[in-house]
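Per-residue structure
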Amino acid sequence: MAVWRDWIKPIKYGEIMIFCISVSMLLYLYRGTHTNDSIYSLLRFIVGPCEEQGYQKKPQTQYVKSTDLFSKVKHYIQIQSTSASCPHNHSCLFYSMRNGLKLFAIGYGLNLCLKLLLQMKKIAYRPTLIFSHMFRMETFRLGAFFGGFGCLFRVVSCTLRRVSCTDSQFHAIPAGAVAGLSFFFYRDNTVALYFMWKALQIIYGLGAEKEMLPQFPHANIFFHAFATAVLFHAALLEPHNLRPSYWRFLTSVSGTKIVHMDRRCLDVFGVESSKSLQMAQSKRH
């Protein structure tokens, strides 16, 4: 809405900047004392429990000699150098590569399964579509984001531990910022804004607990009501500024009443709501 009115100018790759800053703050909090918020479970899955405060280094299992080539290569990578301040058992190279490859496989598999499920009817008639989906660039994007994020975060964290010869919570800030660049492979405004608001929510909550910021009772109810009011205001006066997914949702929730409301009485105020409705409907189709 503000961009349409030329109040602000969109920033190229702004969603990547928002994501990098937000995830850096969240990872900084993750490395320190934090609550049991669900966002930390997601971060634990991506960067691993080794980076969490209070993690106890597990005893290293004894290597069993094997003639298998894969096992030999794996062992060779595992015994490479590491830092005494690193919380993981094996080498930094193995620590980073294993996480990156694992997350890439998970992201790629999830994205592929979702695409195949959505195209199930077409695949039933043309099974060869499975292979075309497997090697499309779009199918690799989620895996590249997951794998790149996990690998880059660990690489930067291990590098900082080697340079400083100590482990610090502040390492999460540059490591998170660099790892956040992998968001380029899976750019999404909704994801970026979710991380931003989650970071602001947690930071504000911590500030309120320490009495550095005022308490805001029932803030979740207020913000939900405020956001709903803004959405319905836009849906009535300037629906073309809503995302197509939001417009479809509000249309469904209102039983299409939001579409059939007469906006001609509003046109006299110069808002051109009738024209805006036509634009919104054209986007929907």
User: Anything to note?
Assistant: The mean pLDDT is 85. Residues 137-164 form the longest helix (28 residues). The radius of gyration is 24 Å. Residues 109 and 143 are 8 Å apart (CA to CA).
